[in-house]
Design goal:
Elements (H helix, E strand, L loop, with lengths): L1 H13 L2 H19 L4 H9 L2 H9 L3 H24 L9 H12 L3 H35 L3 H18 L4 H15 L2 E2 L6 E2 L6 H4 L5 H21 L12 H10 L4 H15 L6 H15 L11 H17 L1 H6 L6 H12 L8 H4 L1 H32 L4 H20 L2 H19 L5 H23 L13 H27 L1
Antiparallel strand pairs: 1-2
Helix pairs in contact: 1-19, 2-3, 2-5, 2-19, 3-5, 3-17, 4-5, 5-6, 5-7, 5-15, 5-17, 5-19, 6-7, 6-15, 7-12, 7-13, 7-15, 7-19, 8-9, 8-14, 8-22, 8-23, 9-22, 11-20, 11-21, 13-14, 13-15, 14-15, 20-21
Length: about 500
């Protein structure tokens, strides 16, 4: 009952005019930041962090600037889906999985359905994760502490296994795609020895930072999608009607209920992946997509505009963004790059994140949690209100739209890394993605591998160092063991299907 009273008081404070205005401003900025390729929530929060000192001086408290930054974070999670669906360019790494089905649905003339599904799933994911955050913060923080390197690697292995065992795609091509992603994720310097790996022609200066994920994502799903669309449609693409009426919006909202399973999977899985230190929303969205496909009765529809394929990653990245706040506040451990910036802001404002934060600073904690509820409602309303404008953007002639995609891709990559090498690399990946599409290779497993590779490799190696090279460390631990067994079963599932088919053929 005390928790409920504190929460209601926190929501009341979040609804004060100054805090409500800051939440609305933060959501709008976040939507823009999330939509623009190359920015993302990390850059948006970091760029506007100095502005929060002005807010703190105006309000005399740390809650208001934190509400503003958290609203930017929320808005960016919503905004990432916009460019993924309308242009085929992931606004941020967290929205890459949304491109898999959001863009195909838009190309079928149902862009409004994709945008509404993304907005509703984001709202549900954000709400469920906030409820979980409110009710079980200390308990879940203790659970997160039990995830060591073996448990995190087992979770990464499970994510790969869902794509191999239950993808419905050509299994050899899926495995090759994963291997390509893992190879690309290993370019650079070895994380333990510091030795250079996979560097071409002693090109240490070019490859020393490795291949940045955003470069690959924009190349694959920005330039690659543009080239593929030009090749397949010969400049005759029509995406959606421009006149978005209230009746069409109502029908799209009703249609979004078909994605309830993906929304639920993304909401729950996203939160629990989000609370793991250093995981974040990008792995959560990709894993939610894979699990949703695994549990679907029609997995072959994924990649062609399946509603669950849009809802699962969108619910997951919003849920994970709230989940990532939990270890930051209760343990002082950032759950994502964005929460690392938020953690720095809290320290600057004189707050001490950790187990005592809820008891020592309730005037900060509960208004912030209350703002999660308020910002979530504001975000879905603003997002739905922008849909007619977004659909008008899609009525451009494709020759103009393709030019816009190209310019945004180049500018986005250069703005993010300030390096022309990354721009050339992005163009190379775009051309490579075009040919992979022609050869019917799935791109999603490669993207998953380059995201999870930098997490899976160090956790694997550190686990084996911990066990003196004994691989049983992944099987004899109470959490890692069951996860690893399930992953192995999923990897072997295609082989079991093959044997069963051969056995039936001999009868």
């Amino acid at each position: 009952m005390d928790v409920l009273a504190l929460l209601l008081n926190g929501i009341w404070i979040a609804l004060e005019p100054i805090n409500l205005g800051l939440a609305l401003l933060g959501i709008i900025i976040g939507l823009f930041v999330g939509t623009m390729p190359g920015l993302g929530s990390v850059n948006g929060v970091a760029i506007l962090l100095p502005f929060t000192f002005v807010i703190q001086q105006m309000t005399g408290q740390a809650t208001s600037p934190m509400i503003f930054l958290a609203a930017i974070y929320y808005g960016a999670m919503y905004g990432g889906a916009i460019s993924s669906i309308t242009l085929g360019i992931p606004g941020a790494s967290t929205a890459v999985a949304t491109t898999f089905d959001g863009r195909p649905l838009a190309l079928q003339g149902k862009a409004e359905n994709a945008l509404v599904i993304a907005a509703v799933a984001s709202f549900v994911g954000g709400t469920i994760s906030t409820l979980l955050f409110t009710g079980a913060a200390p308990l879940l923080a203790n659970v997160a502490l039990k995830f060591g390197n073996p448990e995190i690697f087992a979770l990464m292995l499970l994510a790969f296994a869902t794509f191999v065992g239950l993808s419905g795609d050509d299994i050899p091509k899926t495995v090759i795609s994963i291997c390509i992603g893992l190879i690309l994720s290993a370019v650079g310097f070895d994380i333990i020895s510091g030795a250079p790996r996979l560097l071409l022609f002693d090109s240490t200066e070019w490859f020393s930072r490795g291949i940045q994920f955003l470069v690959l994502a924009i190349g694959f799903y920005g330039i690659g999608e543009m080239l593929s669309t030009i090749y397949e449609t010969k400049n005759k693409t029509e995406i959606s009607e421009a006149n978005m009426t209230l009746d069409r919006l109502r029908r799209a909202l009703i249609k979004s209920s078909e994605a309830w399973k993906g929304t639920l999977i993304g909401s729950v899985l996203g939160f629990f992946v989000g609370i793991l230190p250093a995981a974040g929303a990008t792995p959560a969205s990709l894993m939610a997509y894979g699990v949703s496909k695994m549990m679907s009765k029609q997995p072959t529809k994924f990649g062609t505009g399946a509603p669950d394929g849009i809802a699962a990653p969108e619910a997951a990245n919003n849920s994970a963004s709230t989940g990532a706040m939990l270890p930051m506040m209760t343990l002082g451990i950032p759950g994502s790059p964005t929460t690392a910036v938020l953690l720095a802001g809290m320290v600057i404002w004189g707050l001490t994140p950790g187990p005592q934060l809820f008891t020592d600073q309730p005037d900060f904690v509960w208004p912030l949690i209350g703002s999660f509820y308020v910002s979530n409602v504001i975000a879905v309303v603003v997002n739905l209100a922008f849909i007619p404008l977004l659909l008008r953007l899609l009525r451009m002639p494709f020759s103009i739209l393709a030019s816009l995609i190209f310019v945004l891709s180049v500018v986005g990559v250069f703005a993010a890394y300030q390096n022309m090498y990354d721009v050339w690399l992005m163009l190379f990946f775009g051309i490579a993605a075009f040919f992979l599409r022609l050869l019917k290779y799935p791109l999603a497993p490669a993207v998953l591998a380059i995201v999870l590779g930098p997490i899976a490799e160090p956790t694997l190696r550190q686990s084996l160092i911990l066990s003196d090279g004994n691989w049983m460390i992944f099987l004899n631990r109470p959490i890692a063991g069951p996860i690893t067994i399930v992953a192995i079963i999923l990897i072997l599932l295609p082989f079991f299907h093959f044997l069963r088919k051969q056995w039936r053929g001999t009868r």
